[in-house]
Description:
Residues 1-19, 272-276 and 278-321 have low confidence and may be disordered. A hairpin with a 2-residue loop joins strand 8 (248-255) and strand 9 (258-267). 17% of the residues are buried. The chain is of the alpha+beta class. It has helices spanning 2-9, 22-40, 50-61, 82-86, 90-93, 98-101, 104-119, 173-200, 205-216, 299-306; strands spanning 65-70, 75-78, 132-139, 145-156, 162-171, 226-232, 235-238, 248-255, 258-267, 273-274, 277-278. The longest helix is centred in the middle third of the chain and has 28 residues, at 173-200. It is elongated, with a radius of gyration of 29 Å. 36% of the residues lie in helices and 23% in strands. The chain has three domains: 2-46, no CATH class; 60-176 and 301-306, Beta-Lactamase, CATH 3.30.450.20; 178-267, no CATH class.
Amino acid sequence: MPGDFFGAIIPPLLYTAPRDHGEQIEMAEKDNHENLKERIGFHEDTMLPEREVLYSFLLDMMPDTIWMLDRDMKPLFVSPSSLKTLGYSPEERLRQHLSDMVTPETYARVVDRFKSEQKKEQEEEVDPDRIVTMDMEYYHREGHTVWLENRIRAIRDQDGQVIGLFGVSRDITERRRLEDMLRERIKELSLLQSVANFIESTDSLEKVFQKTVNEIHRGLSFPDCACARITLDGTVFQTANFRKTDKRIYTYITVRGERLGTLGDMLSLCNPCRDGNPVPRRGTGSDEGDREAPGQGRRAQAGRGATERKREKIPRAEHSR
């Protein structure tokens, strides 16, 4: 009888209801319990064991995506939620490789991270059941990218060797967007504080303007690709790398209603672009660690690039406990 197993997982409300509420409430709770079992599928004409019916229901209801990869980073299992999260059905995912699913930057980080994790296998105190957490940028079927947080564990054989990966992915795109906005606001406040300190210093007005122009472009999203210039009463103050480009941000300097000059930032476009936005050079003033600059990847470009990328295995290492 399915009720025995079901009752062990979700105890019937009938058994916990106060007895003084009467037979009518008791019967309603029993009906609710039966309706829930019917919704899960226990009353359907199926040959599946009751445990499999429950597991299938939980997978369908779970908003996070559960997946398994083999050593070649080829999917063995993907739960149904991948369709809602990324627009790809589990059947489609099983025909893809991890390098087809994520951006090149993310794929490179994944390979590097698991190489380093395999080196840890030589340490005596390493936990073979440790969980690795990685933020990864995936392609959505509609062309944009989605950030997923992945909590990953190794699947091991009887000898303790890694034979695959098990993971749970959660959509954190909105969280990362808010984090990016917060970082931008912090940069702006830091810039304003720096300019205030320049003004309060004993430096000449010319030095204050030069220090300000050297600092102000750091408040942009791509400071490594920007330069700045202040023009005031015909006097020009600019960064050493200044050059005019067709991408600029500027405002007028107005004192008591009189326009005296301009303050502007130029994007030098000295680096490759992603969807029209310059990508900062790696390792130059970034405060985000492993995280890439936010971008909107193109699925078509990914398809062309996937065949050119080397599909690396998780390196095999001797396991020690």
